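The following record pairs a protein chain with its ligand, S-adenosyl-L-homocysteine.
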Amino acid sequence: MANQHGQSTHQLAGISSETLQDLLRQWQQPAFRARQILDWRNKGILNPEHMGNLPRDLRRRLGSEIECESLQLIRRQCSADGTRKYVFSLKRPPLQGRQIESVLIPETKRATVCISSQIGCVLDCPFCYTGTQGFEGNLTAAEIIAQILAIKHDLHSDPLPQTLHNEVTHIVYMGMGEPMANEAGVHGSLRLLLDDFRISRRRITLSTSGLVPQIERLGENYPVNLAISLHAADNDLRDRLVPINRKYPLERLRDCLDCYPLGRQRHITLEYVMLAGVNDREEDIRSLLAFVNPARERLNLIQFNPYPGNPFLGSSKEHMNAFAQRLISKGIRATVRRSRGEDIMAACGQLKAETSAVQSAEH
Ligand code: SAH
Ligand code: SF4
């Protein structure tokens, strides 16, 4: 990213402490200022005018030489169950004004933030609203982190009811986009979350449609919890539902999942959106039994979230439960996801499914 003079512009939400220290040295500021600025940043305060312990000239310089607020909050919707959905717009050219969505899902002892990694997606899964919208660009590490910071700030200025947890504890990469198709932004954001924000890798989950080499690199560098959008356990059907399967078919995905590093008591989540008459048949149970490794994997059956113009119908709740019971009786750990924030998500093609996905991906 560059400013109007062609120089690169730093984004505060994603800046490392070394880079900030270098910058402050160039500005002839004492070293302790870096810690002060990062303390504000890590609390979700990105506007230098609100960094009370900084001298006024430094606040001004920060504001003019660094992109401090990478996202602008456009809309916030709050559900009766505490779920909050946020729409942000990007500030940097050429993606200025493009919108992304994030969701906060609070529970009694934890609160999960679901973040976007791209604007749109190139992968074109036919049941996915994001996929039908085309691809407009990758988010930077800072723009990924800024979603979490903005939500932290929101929780601070407008706390949840006391029965719900008011601090962000878990992060899931399940919003707009395919995180493994934006390795630079996603790896950069993971490094910050793990190293600077000190969030445990057990509290971070990344969902991918199955880009095998990228999953391998993730496992080597940032072995966070993995969720795979399986949706079919037969190559012909998966070629249609998750087109990246034509490049990385189930056999390759199988090998990759078998090698993904898991900590103690952890598992890989296999996501399975239930589409009536398409992937919820008897033969699909047989394919799943042949594919899933019950020792390392859990299956999450997700209710399809319809949107205008889509060609699919979701399976009924009764059928989903019966499908899950059949799999459980054969030794597969299968769960049906509970939806959250239904009242506000009604019009949103995808995030409703994603936010509900979070519940069981993390349990
Ligand atoms: N691109 C990544 C992450 C974002 S999608 C991926 O595909 O995994 C997050 C989850 O929502 C995926 O499991 C995806 O398949 C699912 N999803 C997409 N559209 C959906 C819909 N209309 N209804 C229910 N789930 C959907
Ligand atoms: Fe992209 Fe995931 Fe949607 Fe497929 S399901 S189009 S990979 S965002």
